[in-house]
Design a protein that fits this description.
The complex is a heterodimer of chains A (262) and B (278). With 262 residues, chain A is an alpha/beta fold. In chain A, 38% of the residues lie in helices and 23% in strands. Chain A is built from ten helices and ten strands. In chain A, the strands form two sheets. Chain A has a six-stranded mixed sheet, sandwiched between helices. In chain A, strands 2-1-4-5 form a four-stranded antiparallel sheet, covered by helices on one side. In chain A, helix 3 runs parallel beside helix 5 and helix 5 packs parallel to helix 6. The longest helix of chain A has 18 residues. Chain A is globular and about 60 Å long. The termini of chain A are far apart. Chain B has one domain. Chain B starts with 5 loop residues before the first helix and ends in a 6-residue tail after the last helix. The chains are: A alpha/beta (262), B mainly alpha (278). The interface between A and B is medium-sized, with 23 and 13 residues.
């Protein structure tokens, strides 16, 4: 496969929950080595889209490809080799409460390396990943003892703790719930990981500052379809009223009317 | 017919509920089969044992005090309930045997099961439900791990293996509690209590109780884990799953108890013939 071919591709993907259509014939090609940011209002299906890539959700119609291989029809067992190449940073971090930080970060390597990696080697690699996110010495702490920003950084450390390193990291709202300074740390970390680990990133967020900082490409998801696609600068300067309202954080007149203040 | 037609609405509602119920039932059995097929794999790997042993500690060792307390009071209450009646009929000596056989075959396993459904089942559903709503189950899947093998199978195994053991504790302490009231409170002789117990409580009675406990333990674990894995989002979803898990486990214990009694009585009569205790 040439390095120019998309690493991830979605073709006419549709997904509904009950009567609500969340994704409506979505097409997406993700460039290898770049950070693709998907923005959109809450509840527009951004997280749903991410979950399709790693097979956590299956499309009602359409196709999902990873490195040219169709993945949306694979069984859970057949998806394991795909999932070993893709990391997912969940919105709620999804750290395992019963494990220490060190065990959480080592988990993907313990689970997926079989007997290929010795326990001591896994421990060293987990410590290195924890160092990268600036949490040296936190190995023995439990997730309940960490702040929101620290949890997020542990989740990032766990995402890169793979041998070989992941080809893609999916970030679901990586800065949600963080103060601006901590959010900035996470943004810089995402950029740092892209440059040092050479990993492809797909970032889902509704934080425009974060989107502009970490993204090489920016897409706006609206009513189940992409309505803007370009570099962050291009999308931020868009003259489309819907896009402009979103990037500037201006309420939709219909929403204002609905709450009786329009 | 219009949508407002109450008859059509009721039929629609009934149809939807039936389909939902059947689908849930099917999903439960698929989940149960998935959990049970992972048992051999867990038992032959060191990592499987590393997951099993903490569950054995939580489900088994931590439940001993409450199970012993339950057993003791059941034994004591049964003696208090029966003593005067048996005494007035001149059957005081047989009371120990009657109490202990009902303890070993029926009340011990059922009440131990109910107690475990509350203590262990509730905790399992709450733990797994919280992991579900905080996306930890999704995280396991996204890392190529099987959440059922990782979380449900060790809990199922621990419940399956340890419920009979805990029931033994409840039976033993129940018998001792009954004996304590029989001799200490009513001042009856100790020897007939144990002699009639020895005569009436056969290995079959003990086995019947333990087979029941095995099924109760398995049912509690499967229902609790299933409810945790499939709970609705939010604190309300987890709370609802815990309540549903306990209620379903409790009902299942009673249903299983009935059918296992019928089965075990039938087997006993077929192999050994009818035996009168009176």
């Amino acid at each position: 496969m040439s390095s120019e071919s998309p690493i991830i591709e979605l073709r006419r993907v549709c997904k509904s929950f009950g009567r609500q259509r969340v994704l409506d014939e979505v097409d997406l090609s993700v460039e290898r080595g770049a950070n693709t940011v998907i923005v959109g209002r809450s509840g527009t299906g951004k997280s749903v889209l991410l979950k399709h890539i790693v097979g956590l959700l299956r499309p009602d119609r359409g196709e999902v490809y990873f490195e040219g291989q169709r993945v949306d029809q694979l069984s859970e067992r057949a998806l394991v080799p795909i999932r070993q190449q893709i990391s997912f940073v969940f919105q709620l971090n999804a750290l395992f409460d019963s494990m220490t930080v060190g065990e959480n970060v080592a988990f993907p390597m313990v689970e997926n390396s079989g007997r290929r990696l010795k326990r001591e080697r896994i421990r060293q690699m987990a410590s290195k990943c924890i160092d990268i996110v600036g949490l040296s010495g936190f190995e023995q702490k439990r997730p309940a003892e960490l702040s929101g920003g620290e949890k997020k950084r542990v989740a990032l450390a766990r995402a890169i703790a793979m041998e070989p390193p992941p080809k893609v990291i999916l970030y679901d709202e990586p800065t949600a719930g963080l103060d601006p300074q901590r959010a900035d740390v996470i943004n810089k970390l995402i950029r740092h990981l892209q440059r040092t680990v050479h990993v492809t990133g797909i970032v889902v967020t509704h934080d425009m500052k974060s989107a502009a900082e970490v993204g090489d490409r920016l897409l706006l998801l609206h009513h189940g379809r992409f309505m803007a696609d370009g570099t962050p600068a291009e999308v931020l300067q868009s003259t489309d009223p819907q896009v402009h309202r979103f990037v500037e954080g201006i309420a939709d007149p219909a929403d204002l009317k609905a709450v009786g203040v329009g | 017919m219009s949508h407002a037609d109450p008859v059509t609405h009721s039929i629609n509602h009934l149809g939807e509920s039936t389909i939902r119920g059947l689908a849930g039932f099917g999903k439960f059995w698929l989940f149960s089969a998935h959990t049970m097929t992972r048992v051999p794999g867990e038992l032959i790997t060191p990592s499987g044992w590393r997951r099993l042993l903490p569950q054995c500690y939580f489900i088994g060792a931590r439940s001993v005090p409450v199970l012993m307390l339950t057993g003791m009071f059941i034994g004591m209450v049964l003696i208090v309930q029966g003593y005067e009646q048996f005494d007035s009929a001149g059957l005081r000596d047989q009371l120990g045997g009657v109490v202990n056989i009902s303890l070993v075959t029926e009340l011990g396993p059922v009440l131990a099961g109910v107690m475990l459904a509350g203590r262990v089942g509730g905790a399992l559903t709450a733990e797994l439900g919280t992991m579900n709503v905080t996306e930890q189950l999704l995280a396991l899947r996204s890392m190529g791990a099987d959440p059922v093998r990782y979380l449900a199978t060790p809990r199922f195994l621990a419940c399956l293996l340890l419920t009979p053991v805990l029931t033994c504790y409840a039976d033993l302490v129940g018998a001792l509690g009954g004996w304590l009231i029989y001799t200490g409170y009513y001042g009856a002789e100790s020897q007939p209590f144990w002699e009639y117990t020895r005569q009436m409580v056969e290995m079959w009675s003990l086995g019947t109780g333990l087979v029941k406990a095995l099924f109760f333990g398995g049912a509690i674990a499967l229902v609790s884990c299933y409810k945790g894995f499939h709970c609705r989002p939010g604190a309300e979803g987890v709370g609802r799953a815990c309540t549903d898990g306990f209620v379903i486990s409790f009902i299942l214990i009673l249903i299983l108890d009935f059918f296992l009694n019928v089965l075990m009585n039938g087997l006993y009569n077929a192999w050994f013939g009818f035996r009168s205790l009176i």
